[in-house]
Design brief:
357 residues; alpha/beta; TIM Barrel; seven-stranded mixed beta sheet; two-stranded parallel sheet; 13 strands; globular
Length: 357
C-alpha cells in the first residue's frame, strides 16, 4: 500500500484480531502528521452550493484526501481510507419525501410526519442512494491500490427511522404503533442489505477482499460494517429486545466480521443482549463527550472480553498503559490521534512492551 508501511504485517494482526487471536502484539491504530508536514485541513465552505460539492463531488473529495494521505503517518494498523460520508444512518435519505441538508455533516429532517399520508417508500432514483454507489465506484477506480474505500455510514435501522419519523414521534410509536414500526424497520433493513452488498461488491477487490470503516480505523476480511442503535440510550431493554435485536441478528448474519458501536455508558443496560449475539465479534466502546474515561469502566470492558468479544476503544495517549495493564491484549484494539510522528512511534514501542495475554 502506497501510503502505509508494513501493511502485510498489519493485515495478519487484523485477521488474527477478528478471530480472537493475537500475532505479536495488541492491535492499534495511530495517525499523526508526517515529520516535516505543514498540512492544514481544508475548511468546510460557507455557501450551500459549495457545501453540497464539498460532500458529494468525488474529485474534490479525492484531492483533499490524497493531500491528507501524503502528509500523514499511519502507524500500527492504521490505513489510508476514503469514507463514503453522506450522513450517519444515511440510508434514511434513500426514501421518498426525505429532506436533508449539508452542513458540517448531513442533517436529516423527518419525511414521514403522518403514517397515513406519508408512505415509507424506497426511491432508487434518490440523490443520496445514487451518489453512494457513484462515489464507491469512483474512489475504487481511482485508488490503484493506494488506499482503501470505506463502507458507507448506513448503519442503524432504528436510527434511520428516527431521521425519517423524528425521534420524539418514533419513541411514542414504539409504545402506540408497534406494527407500523416493525413494518418500517423491515423495509429499511431491505435497503440496508441492498446498499451494503452493492458497495461491498464494488470495493472488495480494492480492499484486498475485505471491508473498511474509516471513522473506526478498521479493516476486516470479508463483509464488515458496524451495527448500532444510538436511539437505544432512550429505550428500555424490553424495547431493545423487541425492536432492535431482530435487526442486529439479521445484519450479523450478513457480515463475516461485525462490530457494534456502543455509543455511551447509557447503552450498558443492553450489553448482555449484545453479548448474546453469536456472530458479533467486537464492541466499540465510545467515550461520549462529558462521560468518564474508559478507565472508569474496566469491569465492563473485562466482561466484554470474558464473553469472547473484542474491544475497540479510542483513547488518549495517557490511557494506553493503564488500559493495557488491566485488559487482555488478545482482544484489544486501541485507536489514537497524536500530534507528531515521533509521538506515534513512541506509542508503538509502549504497546509492544505492554502486550500480554
Amino acid at each position: 500500500m502506497y501510503y502505509k508501511d508494513n501493511w502485510d504485517n498489519s493485515k495478519k494482526r487484523l485477521e488474527a484480531f477478528w478471530k480472537g487471536e493475537i500475532v505479536d502484539r495488541c492491535c492499534f491504530s495511530v495517525v499523526s502528521h508526517r515529520k516535516g508536514s505543514r498540512f492544514i485541513p481544508e475548511a468546510i465552505p460557507q455557501s450551500p452550493e459549495d457545501k453540497l460539492r464539498y460532500w458529494t463531488d468525488g474529485e474534490w473529495i479525492l484531492k483533499r484526501h490524497l493531500d491528507y494521505f501524503e502528509n500523514s503517518y499511519f502507524g500500527g494498523e492504521a490505513t489510508p481510507q476514503i469514507f463514503i460520508n453522506l450522513g450517519a444512518g444515511g440510508h434514511a435519505g434513500f426514501f421518498k419525501n426525505m429532506k436533508y441538508q449539508f452542513e458540517e455533516t448531513v442533517w436529516f429532517f423527518p419525511g414521514v410526519n403522518d403514517w397515513d399520508k406519508d408512505e415509507l417508500e424506497f426511491d432508487p432514483e434518490s440523490f443520496l442512494y445514487k451518489k453512494t454507489i457513484e462515489l464507491a465506484k469512483y474512489y475504487t477506480a481511482e485508488s490503484k491500490g493506494r488506499y482503501f474505500v470505506s463502507m458507507p455510514d448506513t448503519s442503524g435501522n432504528a436510527d434511520a427511522l428516527a431521521h425519517l419519523r423524528g425521534s420524539e414521534n418514533l419513541l411514542v410509536d414504539l409504545v402506540t404503533d408497534e406494527e407500523r414500526v416493525q413494518e418500517a424497520l423491515g423495509k429499511i433493513q431491505e435497503v440496508w442489505l441492498d446498499i451494503n452488498q452493492q458497495v461491498y461488491d464494488i470495493v472488495k477487490e480494492n480492499n484486498e477482499g475485505g471491508s473498511a470503516i474509516t471513522w473506526l480505523d478498521t479493516w476486516a476480511p470479508g463483509r464488515h460494517a458496524q451495527m448500532q442503535c444510538d436511539l437505544s440510550v432512550m429505550i428500555s431493554p424490553y424495547m431493545f429486545e423487541k425492536f432492535i435485536m431482530p435487526e442486529l441478528r439479521a445484519q450479523s448474519e450478513w457480515m463475516d466480521n461485525c462490530l457494534y458501536h456502543l455509543d455511551g455508558m447509557e447503552q450498558v443496560r443492553h450489553l448482555d443482549m449484545l453479548l448474546s449475539l453469536e456472530r458479533l465479534k467486537v464492541i466499540q466502546w465510545t467515550c461520549v463527550v462529558g462521560q468518564p474515561s474508559p478507565l472508569e469502566f474496566i469491569p465492563i470492558l473485562k466482561k466484554i472480553q470474558a464473553a469472547g468479544k473484542g474491544v475497540l476503544i479510542r483513547v488518549n495517549p495517557d490511557e494506553v498503559e493503564p488500559l493495557m495493564e488491566q485488559l487482555s491484549s488478545k482482544g484489544l484494539y486501541l485507536v489514537l490521534r497524536v500530534s507528531s510522528e515521533d509521538e506515534a512511534k513512541e506509542i508503538e514501542k509502549k504497546i509492544i512492551k505492554l502486550t500480554h495475554e
